[in-house]
Design goal:
CATH class of the domain at 144-304: Alpha Beta
Shape: elongated
Strand content: 5-15%
Structural class: alpha/beta
Number of strands: 7
Distance between the termini: 195 Å
Helix content: over 70%
Largest sheet: 5 strands, mixed
Number of helices: 9
Strand order of the largest sheet: 3-4-5-6-7
Length: 380
């Protein structure tokens, strides 16, 4: 039996019914609450969506502004980049133009120098051709013994004549012992003379040049040593005369190459010449020696002429003294002339003054004014 806790409108309500009614009521309340909450959620969602939409619009506006700013920035940068590239291209073009111009100028200068060098080479080739012909002629001269001697003698004489004044040398002069050297050089103050010999033995040297080596070369060298040694002894015995010639004599070698070869390959011959007091000289060494001798002669001539120079200086001093006296007299004449000119200027000033006064007078018609004018002129 069910318990009836209460009546509702005369209808008994059991606990089960009351519980079911309560549950139904609770469900209804929950449903209403749910509907109300859902409505509020929808409203909130709509507000949130609107806010999100507004935020999206705002962000879109900001993004558009940023995009515009970025586009402007990119445009400016692009313009700056284009301008910079244009300037760099201009500069690069200018530099390339300058470089091309400089290269063209350099190439032109190089071509000019090349042409000059080619011209020099052509000239050198012509000179070599002429030299070859001269060498051929020289070889023909040296092939003959007589022409060899004449060639060495002529070259030595040319050097001596070009370097020394006349009267300071003599060719083929006779010494006290009867020998006649090729050249003697006179020294001042009666000093002993210098002897120069130009008969260098070239036969053995030509044999050395013509030899093919081996025994023939050694034989030619030995013959050269013998010939040169004998010639050195002949110079020392014939031309070194105490008190008449210098203590040393010159043996002239007409070729620089032969001279250098003697000193390189025949040291014993050079030492023998030193022992015999004979100096082996080439054309350049002979020219240098002649220049030294010329300086010595010039210095000696200056010392010999010193007294003449002193006399001329004394005469010059006397002339200067007479010139000083004449200048003093001329100064006196100038002073007197100056005083005379001053007196003349005084007289001219007086004449001028009187002329001006006469010009200032007015001629009177009556003779009564004449005495006054005479008195005026007399007062002056």
């Amino acid at each position: 039996m069910q318990t009836v806790p209460f009546d509702l409108a005369g209808h008994p309500v059991t606990l089960l019914e009351a519980a079911l009614a309560g549950v139904a009521l609770l469900l209804l309340i929950l449903l209403l609450a749910a509907l109300a909450g859902r409505r509020r959620g929808v409203d909130d969602e709509e507000d949130a969506a609107e806010e999100r939409l507004a935020e999206v619009m705002r962000m879109q506006s900001e993004m558009a502004g940023r995009m515009n700013a970025m586009a402007e920035l990119l445009a400016r940068r692009q313009s700056d980049l284009v301008h910079g590239l244009s300037e760099r291209m201009d500069m690069l073009g200018h530099r390339i133009g300058q470089s091309m111009t400089e290269q063209a100028r350099s190439a032109h200068a190089d071509l000019s120098r090349l042409n000059e060098r080619l011209a020099v080479i052509d000239t050198a080739q012509k000179n070599l051709t002429e030299l070859s012909s001269q060498v051929v002629g020289l070889q023909a001269i040296l092939a003959n013994k007589q022409t060899r001697g004449a060639f060495g003698q002529a070259r030595m004489e040319a050097i001596v004549q070009d370097g020394l004044p006349r009267g300071r040398y003599a060719f083929q002069a006779t010494l006290s012992n009867g020998n006649r050297p090729d050249c003697v050089v006179e020294f001042p103050n009666g000093a002993p003379r210098l002897v120069i010999d130009a008969k260098f033995p070239l036969e053995a040297w030509n044999a050395i040049r013509a030899s093919e080596g081996g025994d023939s070369l050694r034989g030619a060298e030995a013959q050269f040593r013998r010939d040169v040694g004998k010639h050195l002894k002949d110079i020392a015995e014939r031309y070194l005369i105490p008190g008449e010639t210098q203590d040393t004599a010159f043996m002239f070698v007409p070729s620089e190459s032969i001279f250098s070869s003697i000193h390189e390959r025949f040291e014993d011959v050079v030492q023998q010449a030193h022992r015999l007091r004979v100096v082996i000289v080439s054309p350049s060494l002979l020219l240098l020696s002649i220049q030294v001798i010329q300086s010595i002669l010039r210095d000696a001539d200056m010392r010999a002429q010193a007294h003449l120079i002193q006399n001329e200086v004394m005469k010059l001093i006397e002339d200067v003294g007479r010139l000083d006296e004449r200048v003093g007299k001329l100064q006196t004449h100038f002073g007197q002339a100056s005083r005379d000119i001053e007196d003349i200027l005084v007289s001219t000033r007086k004449v001028k003054s009187r002329g001006e006064r006469i010009g200032a007078l007015e001629l009177a018609d009556d003779e009564a004014a004449l005495p006054a004018q005479r008195d005026l002129l007399a007062g002056e």
